[in-house]
Amino acid sequence: MSAYLVALLTALLGWWLSTGVILYLNLLPRYSHRWSVLAFATLGLFSLTLLPQVARDATPLGAAVGFAIALAVWGWLEISYLMDFLTGTHKRPCPPGARGWVRFRLALATSIHHELAVAGVGIAIVALSWGGDNQVATGTYLVLWIMRWSAKLNLYLGVSNFNEHWLPERSRYLVSYMRKRRMNYLFPVSITLGTAGTALLLRAAIGADDDFGRLGNTLVCSLLALAVLEHWFLVLPLRDSALWQWAISAADRARGRPPGARRNPPVTPAAAREARELRSRLGTG
To answer: Are 228 and 5 in contact (CB under 8 A)?
Structure first.
């Protein structure tokens, strides 16, 4: 039981703390972002150099280190995207009237370089771990990758709740590719497959013969369960941002803004209509 509890707490703390740190850094002034990306890139690359040795370490410590490596590498990729250093070829709002393949192509173009980097790093992690008994880093990265794709597709198709205020001003155009809907046809599939995967990993953790198997499977299982929970946050009327209010408030203090101040002034209907008309004339959507 101690191995399961340690794994659950480790995954929960890693998910909560890493998300908070990235959110905090992302909300800091623009001039600080290059240093944040450089620091995460250094940490990510260093973590990858450790992976071949860690993949051969089938011990509880090796499982924990493999999990941490995947989180560090993923944090590097996420912060590079959020801070606009590794995005795509298209950085404009969705044009009015764009539908179907045109809208999807433009949405994909906003992050195509990032998606290719995620795929490339995923292949590198698989290659560096190949043949090792410790595949926790690979499993962790695959969960983050697949569930991130699922979340992005659900945002594209439409959900009722998302934290657009987490995006800095320069990236607000991404909101134009998201839809407000109560539900979309992909969401039940994402939840069903994610829950089934969680159950399979839990079964593997319970049936493991040693602490390494119990810890490793529980780490990946817990992370997948948290990813499923994040999917539910997309459709339920819950303020999941409250979990990271400490990071938002700290960033506000660092910027000299009173904690809890509105990030965006209220927009009147007339002002919104004028802005849409102006964007339409300029061809910016």
So the answer is: no
- List, for residues 132-163, the tens digit of each pLDDT value: 999 999 999 999 999 999 999 999 999 988 77
Domain ranges of the chain: 2-282
Distance CA 170, CA 164 (A): 12
Sequence-distant (6+) residues with CB within 8 A of 160 are 180, 181, 182, 183, 234, 235, 237
Do 150 and 194 form a contact (C-beta atoms < 8 A)? Answer: yes
Under a CB-based contact definition with an 8 Å cutoff, are residues 96 and 177 in contact?
no
CB atoms within 10 A of CB 97: 9
Report, as ranges of residue numbers, the positions in the chain whose pLDDT lies below 50.
Answer: 262-285
Is 91 within 8 Å of 85 (Cβ atoms)? no
- Tell which phi-psi region holds residue 208, choosing left (phi > 0), alpha (psi between -120 and 50) or beta: beta
- Per-residue pLDDT tens for 72-120? 999 999 999 988 899 999 988 998 888 899 999 999 999 999 999 999 9
Please list, in sequence order, all residues whose beta carbon lies within 8 angstroms of the beta carbon of residue 225, skipping any fewer than 6 positions away. 198
Distance CA 137, CA 212 (A): 13
Please indicate, yes or no, whether the overall pTM of this predicted structure exceeds 0.90: no
User: According to the model, what pLDDT value does residue 269 have?
Assistant: 44
Chain CA centroid to CA 144, Å: 7
